[in-house]
Write a structure and sequence with these properties.
Helices cover about 25% and strands about 25% of the residues. The protein has about 400 residues and is α+β, with helices and mostly antiparallel strands.
């Protein structure tokens, strides 16, 4: 069967669904394709929660984007059937005093420079306000009220519903077999079901599958898997806001971050934003190992004693689509007309959902946008690491 649209969007994660919404609003006929079901159980956008926060060390562009995104999250709460962004606040704590050059120090001072009011916390204040933390283990850091978490899987479901209501045609159950090219222009695609889709413009927003569909991106992107745990606390009151909020725990050294007791799921989610394990999105198993669990229990013993023996009720290995420099890839293809790439969330893209759609739409239309140069098509050497080699862009969205 053949279908024709103005724009095809491949992938219904946070990049794809917001792009589809924005372009439909701008007057295009848009089709959104995804293997499904939605939210896709293997997609990075899935799970019960993603961190929403402004803190990005010294990177002012990301903080500016996050400020705008937070306004969007509050607006989305008014549009969704039930609020899905929970502004619990965020704590970023350190095991030694914050110092210049450190992620937490630079984040704290960037917040101040941009007019925010984070609250500096010493060891005594940490325990007084957040009693689940092990006394004396963390001695410095801050709390920022403008942040929290979004119920990510439910957000995707709500956005897909909004997209369909706005006129976007959704094709779940469609996996891209190949992009169709004529005379240097992408004219559409063929799916594994044998269906053909044609369009003036195609957006590849396939997350961890992006480089599988467009192999020329393989040198600059990789797929990595990161362990996620849901724990059932015996004392949930210790892990409920305001006594416990979204946290990072010396993240530039440890990778650990997590969430308060989930209001619907009744679990505490803790995950690690580290180097991860290189995986193929289709061919490799996404197993959380015994070693992953051992590292979690070691972290809990040193950080949250009340969770040491808490049962783990669910695990997943979340796949990131990483660019080598850990910045997004939102740009028209330099030598294939009619193709825009919108991917490489690199473990920190979800929080920007409310601004991603228009950012991608501007890339498609060739409009000027002060944020787009950061995410342009670029040459990266094989040994490129992120601007913060320890991956302290922060908690996974």
């Amino acid at each position: 069967m053949s279908h024709t649209f103005d724009v095809l969007v491949v992938g219904a994660g946070i990049f794809g669904v917001t792009a589809a919404l924005s372009l439909q609003t701008r007057g295009y006929q848009v089709a959104l394709l995804d293997p499904g079901p939605l939210p896709h159980p293997l997609a990075a956008s899935t799970d019960i929660s993603k961190v929403i926060r402004m803190e990005y060390g010294p990177d002012e562009t990301y903080m500016e984007m996050a400020e705008k995104a937070r306004e969007g999250w509050l607006a989305w709460n008014e549009q969704f059937d039930t609020p899905l962004y929970h502004e619990t606040g965020v704590t970023m704590l350190t095991r030694s005093p914050m110092s210049p050059g450190g992620f937490e120090y630079e984040s704290y001072h960037m917040l101040l420079r941009r007019g925010h009011t984070p609250e500096r916390l010493n060891a005594d204040e940490i325990i007084r306000r957040f009693p689940a933390w092990k006394p004396g283990a963390f001695v410095d850091g801050f709390y920022h009220a403008k942040g929290g978490f979004a119920e990510s899987g439910r957000v995707i479901s709500a956005l897909v519903k909004m997209a369909e209501t706005s006129g976007v045609r959704l094709f779940a159950g469609e996996t891209v077999e190949e992009l169709r090219e004529e005379n240097g222009r992408i004219t559409g695609l063929l799916t594994r079901t044998g269906n053909q889709f044609s369009a003036a413009h195609t957006i590849l927003a396939a997350g961890a599958w992006t480089w599988v569909i467009l192999p020329e991106l393989t040198p600059v992107m990789r797929t990595t898997g990161h362990p996620v745990f849901h724990l059932k606390p015996t004392r949930p009151e210790l892990f409920t806001p305001p006594h416990f909020v979204v946290f990072t725990a010396d993240i530039s050294h440890s990778g650990w971050y997590g969430f308060p007791h989930h209001p619907r799921e009744g679990v505490v989610k803790i995950a690690n934003h580290g180097v991860g394990v290189r995986l193929h999105p289709e061919h490799d198993e996404r197993i959380v190992t015994a070693e992953d669990e051992h590292q979690l229990r070691t972290f809990l013993a040193d950080t949250f004693p009340a969770l040491i023996d808490a049962p783990i009720v669910y695990t997943r290995r979340c796949l990131y689509c990483d660019s080598l420099d850990e910045h997004f890839w939102i740009t028209q293809h330099p030598y294939k007309q009619g193709l825009t790439i919108a991917t490489a969330g690199s473990g920190h893209g979800f929080k920007f959902g409310p601004v991603l759609g228009d950012l991608i739409a501007d890339a498609v239309e060739g409009h000027s946008n002060s944020w787009l140069p950061k995410f342009a098509w670029r040459h990266l050497e094989a040994d490129t690491t992120g601007e913060e080699a320890s991956r302290f862009h922060g908690a996974h969205d």
